[in-house]
Amino acid sequence: MSITPHDERFMAAAIRLSRWHLGRTATNPSVGCLIVKDGVIVGRAVTALSGRPHAETQALAEAGVLARGATAYVTLEPCSHHGKTPPCAEALIAYGVARVVISVTDPDPRVSGRGIAMLREAGIEVDAGVLEAEGRQSLAAYLTRQTKNRPYVTLKLAVSADGMIGRQGAGQVAITGPEARAQVQALRAETDAILVGIGTAIADDPLLTVRSPGLESQSPTRIVLDPSLALPLTSKLVATAREVPVIVVASEETSLLAAEGGASPADMDSRRAAFEAAGVEVVHCNPYHPEVLLPALATRGISSLLVEGGAKTARLFLEAGLVDRIQLYQAPVVIGERGIESPLDATDIPSGFAHTGTLMFGGDRLDEYERGL
């Protein structure tokens, strides 16, 4: 059966639905599923919080007997392996679905192509690759962790009219307006973890949580690149570590920690113990080698990472070629003297990135750039 405009319309709806739980399904992808019969949606679902149950089983349960002879629209190939739950492909077969339309084939070697084969062997018609580019974008974090063994990395920068991202010695400086800041809160809410360098953590003393009403519980894990364990124990991050997880990435060499921090190894052990007593996880992994750090974060179930500050940290990830998406906010405000120069502006986006859109939030402009997955 050829793909029709109706197929694309329903798949677009399934993709929109899949975004509801981005960043909230643990290591499982946030998948959208619609069950459609005679042009009417009779069941719909998104992967549940924490990753189970999967979207297909929930949508099928909602459809009930109406699923027989219906078409299922799924953003990711249904699983075919027995894990903590039975395969979704088996559920689709058991409910008597006549056709399954898929956006993206699952790269997980336990699934890849097997879910489709299982459905076809049961006599179900399968069409794959519908709105695949859009589907891959919604599944970018999961696909990156599966294929590259690291999180999908978004770099967010807010740049003033004179090319600055802050002012030395001034702590947090508001560059964008309230509309743009609200958009950033929404981005945090759909991201597994947010990362800053120790300079930003000390200068700004940020919380790095989601503050939009109703989304506070979706705050990401907070990560600080802190080779010498210099983060103040009185910081907001440490004070709230038992409410929202905090990971401090320290140098692997205790002697180096002591040398950089001007403290003895015993002092460093004491600081580490104090962090851990406050609920902060200390990870020993060279903080300035993201090619090593990112796989370590992936093993902790982190599929998406938002890099927010500061200039040194942004350059670190850019120069390593480990940024997948750039969100560049440009604001009319002028920083002036003692400004901290942005590591990037719209005129020097690295090669390999495609401009994917421009949005206005009040007087601030957001340009987004992405690499191909």
List keywords for this structure.
five-stranded mixed β-sheet; single chain; 373 residues; nine-stranded mixed β-sheet; 13 helices; alpha/beta; 31% helix; 24% strand
**Content of β-strand:** 15-25%
Overall morphology: globular
What composes the largest sheet? 9 strands, mixed
- Class per helix and strand makeup: alpha/beta
Report low-confidence residues grouped into runs of 5 or more.
Answer: none
**DSSP, total strands:** 16
User: H/E order of the elements?
Assistant: HEEHEHEHEHHEEHEHEHEHHEHEHEEEE
Distance between the termini: 28 Å
As a whole number of angstroms, the C-alpha radius of gyration is 23 Å
User: How many helices does DSSP assign?
Assistant: 13
Could you explain the architecture of this structure?
- The chain is an alpha/beta fold.
- The chain contains 13 helices and 16 strands.
- The strands form three sheets. Strands 11-10-9-8-12-6-13-16-15 form a nine-stranded mixed sheet, with helices on both faces.
- Helix 3 links the parallel strand 3 (71-76) and strand 4 (99-104).
- The longest helix has 14 residues, at 5-18.
List the helices and strands and how they pair.
Elements: H1 5-18, E1 32-37, E2 40-46, H2 55-63, E3 71-76, H3 88-94, E4 99-104, H4 114-121, E5 125-128, H5 132-138, H6 140-148, E6 152-159, E7 164-167, H7 178-189, E8 193-197, H8 198-204, E9 221-225, H9 236-239, E10 246-250, H10 254-261, H11 265-277, E11 281-284, H12 290-298, E12 304-309, H13 311-319, E13 325-330, E14 339-341, E15 354-361, E16 364-370
Parallel strand pairs: 3-4, 4-5, 6-12, 6-13, 8-9, 8-12, 9-10, 10-11
Antiparallel strand pairs: 1-2, 1-3, 7-14, 13-16, 15-16
